[in-house]
Amino acid sequence: DKTYLSYEDGALQIDHHYVDSRYPSSYEVGEPSDHYSDKDAAECVAFAERILAEAHAKVGLPVWTPGGRAD
Questions:
Q1: Three-class SS of residue 68?
Q2: By CB distance 3.0 to 4.6 Å, which of 3, 44, 56, 69 could disulfide with 61?
Q3: What is the pTM of this model?
Q4: Is 65 helix (H, G, I), strand (E, B) or coil?
């Protein structure tokens, strides 16, 4: 479905951060929090919210909104 192609960059960014942010041993030096900014986190959350809202709409679920509320 071509609808989801517009989410590819965001999904790749989220994927890029997944392992390294969850497993401290993935870094030679420092903790995961030393390698990520609030901006990185905010961008990934925004991408995830858009992807989830689209997926809910696509399968006929109530549209998901930030905070987990369905309208």
A1: coil
A2: 56
A3: 0.69
A4: strand
Buried b (16+ CB within 10 A) or exposed e, 17-27: beeebeeeeee
- Contacts with 66 (C-beta within 8 Å, 6 or more apart), sequence order: 49
**CA–CA dist 68, 63 (Å, integer):** 10
18: left (phi over 0), alpha (psi -120 to 50) or beta: alpha
Task: Please report, in tens digits, the pLDDT of each residue of the chain (71 residues total).
Answer: 677 788 888 888 888 877 777 776 777 887 777 878 899 889 988 988 888 888 888 888 887 666 655 55
Q: How far apart are CA 30 and CA 8, in angstroms?
A: 30
